[in-house]
């Protein structure tokens, strides 16, 4: 029994609506035109026309991170699909739920090297959780349901649905109910399957309950514990529970780059971000610890530094939903595999019965705090006519973001690290960045997506001049959609982090890191966007306040010296305790 | 579902002297491609030993060099693939 006949494209639209899709980001083209055709006059989803498919993928990513919903992007076949790849890889690395819908050439042309044909499914396999090539229109509702289920389940990630043009155009019966009707056997989230080596203790597989008991026992015996908080806490929506655990057990807390909004950075127990550009006290605490409890973290190489020198005296407890994570980079003593919503409460109950981190440990942590003091003073910060510095800019933006309960989306490079060091009291889902893949050009389109995903919050995009030049075409989309985005370009005329590495690690031999740049204010004006250039320390706060209240999008061109560098820094191949607090004099090359 | 014919009482970073890994998956080229791509991408030191159809499924058997190890987490990744129905691991003498 059916409720009439419609095209595959209309079924696709209805299936997206059925999954709760409110907004999708895309660029049309020949092979996806039947789908765009059914959007004409349709009640939803709202389509946002981006200026590049990579921007569409990043916008869907930003939308998902800010809203907690599945982000949706749309592209045509061939170059439209290949342009999505960087955005899909970005989402996969950071565990962001997305569904990408791509048009494909008609079925009878597939394999003929047709115009705008490529092997979309094959190209995207390594950067998606799964991909579907839909062969029959009647399969569309089930495939879309399966794709959303996959994107949301376990460790979230991107899923691709490739639909040939003739399948979009074919008429088929409307099912009475859009349910999961996968042409395959149906996906079961991995944690529901019989386990090969689920949780483990000392390498031996065990039940989740036994692993939690072992974790509790380890913590109760610990004299120098550290709680490490990552994006898994955001995904599982357990930030409050983590805070309660930390406070009950008086645990020092470090927050990874993607966990900066999972625990209040100004909380007295927060010792900051660990890793390559982490705080001294966070890296010292980890290095001296006898127990690290990782919650939804990946222990990636930017956090651990040289693995053999990472927390050399510490046991490792790793809570994660992803069975691939424990032991991937560091030896793990106890792995608790599951959703933090289920595994954290029994752990917290076990810990809270009388355990507190020893006072002697806190004395050492406080000592590092005192020794480290406040982050280095901004360059020439007391001279109002002096130049801006990266840290001054970041500190000022972070303060405006905190004051206005805004979302900040950072790109990749020096400004990303400065902002991470300065972020202040961020609510969950308000500090967005490409942490795993490190994708330049992410921030502007992702900020646009975040603004549509969380319209109740102001949104700032903080971008280097290099990343901005990879993405500024999306300013047209910002204007088109009437989004009140604040864009701060931290402009040092260089690929700053590359320059810093060349200066400090490659003997000062700068190659291809000095950028020429257009007049960004004039460029913004060409998009009919208000813009200001600031190059004096004393003008910064006024400009930021004006941008925060400007009735429309704003671009700020914030000029900082190319010589400004990010510290602390753990040089590649060194341990966390071997960080440089300032530029090492012997490596400075004029 | 994963069936193991060996006792999995070893550190999760090792499975002992390797093994034979049998993957039962949907009879589709893209399912096979994704399984093989996962093996390649994760650097599992396995070579294809045999591939045949069994009822409606494909049975892909891989073997590693003697003494090679495969982290359990990569086997978990194979299990997580949507088209993989079963992974069996055995240690060959």
Structural description of this entry:
The complex is a heterodimer of chains A (590) and B (93). Chain A is of the alpha/beta class and 590 residues long. Helices cover 36% and strands 18% of the residues of chain A. Chain A has an eight-stranded mixed beta sheet, with helices on both faces. In chain A, strands 3-2-4-5-7-6 form a six-stranded parallel beta sheet, with helices on both faces. In chain A, helix 23 (540-549) links the parallel strand 21 and strand 22. In chain A, helix 3 runs parallel beside helix 5 (85-94) and helix 16 (390-403) runs parallel beside helix 23. The radius of gyration of chain A is 25 Å and the shape is globular. The termini of chain A are far apart. With 93 residues, chain B is an alpha+beta fold. Chain B has helices at 29-41, 72-80; strands at 2-4, 19-26, 46-54, 57-64, 84-91. A five-stranded mixed beta sheet of chain B has the order 1-5-2-4-3. In chain B, a hairpin with a 2-residue loop joins strand 3 (46-54) and strand 4.
Helix content of chain B: 10-25%
Order of strands in the sheet with most strands of chain B? 1-5-2-4-3
Q: What is the CA-CA span between the terminal residues of chain A?
A: 78 Å
Radius of gyration of chain B: 12 Å
Mean of the pLDDT scores of chain B?
A: 78
Distance between the termini of chain B: 25 Å
Cα radius of gyration of chain A in angstroms: 25 Å
Give the tally of β-strands of chain A: 22
- What is the percentage of strand-forming residues of chain A? 15-25%
Query: Level of helix content of chain A?
Result: 25-40%
Give the count of helical stretches of chain A: 23
**Widest sheet: strand ordering of chain A:** 10-9-16-15-14-11-12-13
Largest interface: A-B, 32 and 30 residues
> Structural class of the secondary elements of chain A?
alpha/beta
Please name the defining characteristics of this protein.
heterodimer, A: 590 residues, alpha/beta, 23 helices, 36% helix, B: 93 residues, alpha+beta, 2 helices, 5 strands
